[in-house]
Design a protein that fits this description.
Rossmann fold; globular; 6-stranded mixed sheet; alpha/beta; about 500 residues; Arc Repressor Mutant, subunit A; 3 domains; 4-stranded parallel sheet; 20 helices
Length: about 500
């Protein structure tokens, strides 16, 4: 039984009834957190009682916002291993390093915790369908849990921008209704427009956030109801780290732990670090990132919705926030896999990358007890394996054959040449026709060029970028390569070496 009292805005303090269907504050559009009757929980919940329960997110149902057990949807999320590192500890210079290994969740990411609670809330409120704008872990998790709950699901994916191949396969496997839109911003807008007839799932929805905090419940229980000295967390929207802080406070208020001494470290990638930038400036104003390019796709959030809450959590815990480079992230992926047998996606490995820096600088002492949140599995990002075989020609060639031929051998010479023309920048039909004639000696009629462009667009290799009117009042359509088109062209060039 849930002991929830209300939903409270973290910005203006406005409280909302717990069973109302709101995903943000109705007064200021701020992020909502669930409040509980913690005094009553402390009288009914004890470590011994929790010990007898089955591991998983729903073990802590009193501290979650679902009222009836029949509405609790599960695929076996939570109950993940707290991995004591020996070899990696020695390399970094620590005595007590632990990984909270979330790669073993049903869809391979910690987000399953949030999705389980969110979909349960959707069921409790009688919705029949859900949607989201995402191409990453959120979308993959959402469609899996929607299938489990018997709900229809729809995912909007931006054609421009980064799409993790492994996650895209997951989305397709669960038979979701997938619609391709222009970019990630359009995907979010389209999903929000569906909210009148379908429940729109976003990373800052209050029920979703409540599921995420269970990582720290489990961590403290696995450490004998004590807290580590440091908890290091990847930050995208900033929701996870802020909920870890909320979870620590709830455990303390209920008496399950004594006063928390854990200091929180938030980490982002250099290419997109708006929360870290605000922390280092010494203020709580989040300025949206302009670049947003990094191998850590899932935390490359330009405008983090829970950014201010993340800053509060870091400051109140007397923690810190730092960004790491793509090179440091890839080195961390390799170290985790080689030394501890954990294949993490780049976003997760940021915690190890920043840990190394903090130990080297003396900010973290070698005797401190540290927990790094490993939030997602590397198998969702198979391209990362290419970095592991650099310099080994026979393996690089084999990977090129495995990866590239599936997408490139069916492309004819003319289409490949069109990709090469567009690799130099966007162009229009006549410009492409002229480049094919002058640079490659390919003579085509203009309609044939447009037929090839239509087929390349349908394959996701090319996208129409804009339309303009010429001085003769004719319509001119411009085209450019998508990320998939760039990648495919790279694979072709490798195969030709």
């Amino acid at each position: 039984m849930s002991f929830q009292l209300s939903l409270k805005c973290t910005s203006c303090g406005q409280e909302h009834e717990p069973q109302t269907h709101v995903t943000a504050c109705t007064e200021c559009d701020g992020v909502l957190h669930a409040l509980y009757n913690l005094d009553s929980i402390s009288d009914t919940l004890s470590p011994r009682k929790l010990e007898r329960r089955r591991p998983g997110v729903w073990k802590y149902s009193e501290l979650l916002p679902i009222r009836e057990q029949k509405n609790m949807i599960s695929l076996g999320e939570g109950g993940t291993y707290l991995h004591k590192c020996d070899r990696l500890s020695k390399e970094i210079g620590l005595q007590n390093l632990f990984l909270k290994d979330e790669t073993t969740n049903p869809t391979g990411a910690f987000i399953d915790r949030g999705t389980a609670v969110e979909i349960s809330a959707v069921k409790e409120r009688g919705f029949k369908s859900v949607c989201c704008g995402s191409s990453g872990n959120l979308a993959a998790s959402l469609v899996a849990y929607a299938a489990r709950a018997g709900l229809n699901s729809r995912v909007f994916i931006g054609q421009r921008g980064n799409v993790d191949v492994g996650k895209f396969y997951q989305i397709l496997a669960y038979a979701a209704d997938v619609e391709i839109v222009k970019n990630h911003e359009d995907a979010l807008i389209r999903a929000q427009r569906e909210s009148g007839r379908s429940h729109c799932v976003m990373g800052h929805n209050p029920h979703f956030l409540e599921g995420e905090k269970t990582t720290v419940y489990e961590t403290c229980e696995q450490l004998g109801w004590t807290t580590p000295d440091w908890i290091i967390v990847p930050m995208g929207n900033g929701g996870h780290i802020s909920m870890i802080w909320k979870g620590l406070n709830e455990l303390e208020r209920t008496g399950l732990i004594s006063k928390s001494t854990a200091r929180l470290v938030g980490v982002q990638a250099d290419g997109c670090s708006p929360i870290v930038d605000a922390f280092q400036r010494g203020d709580r104003k989040i300025i949206p990132a302009k670049v947003g390019t990094t191998v850590a796709f899932d935390i490359g959030v330009k405008s983090p919705s829970s950014g201010q809450n993340a800053l509060v959590a870091i400051e109140l815990s007397e923690g810190t926030a730092q960004a790491v480079s793509d090179r440091e992230i890839l080195e961390a992926v390799r170290s985790l896999a080689k030394l501890e047998g954990v294949f993490a996606e780049p976003s997760s490995a940021t915690t190890i990358a920043v840990l190394k820096k903090l130990v080297e600088s003396g900010s973290i002492d070698g005797s401190d007890r540290v927990v790094c949140m490993i939030t997602g599995m590397g198998l969702k990002y198979p391209e990362i394996a290419r970095d592991f075989v650099k310099g080994r020609g026979e393996l690089e060639h084999l990977l090129s054959r495995v990866e590239g031929r599936k997408f490139t051998t069916k492309l004819g010479e003319t289409k490949v040449c069109i990709l090469r023309v567009l690799s130099k920048g966007e162009s229009y039909g006549y410009g492409i026709w002229k480049a094919l004639r002058d640079d490659f000696g390919i003579a085509l009629k203009i309609p044939s060029v447009y037929q090839h462009l239509t087929e390349l667009t349908g394959s996701g290799l090319v996208i129409s970028t804009r339309t303009e009117r010429t001085h003769e009042k004719r319509q001119r359509n411009y085209y450019a390569l998508t990320e998939k088109g760039k990648w495919t062209l790279t694979q072709l060039e490798k195969l030709e070496r």
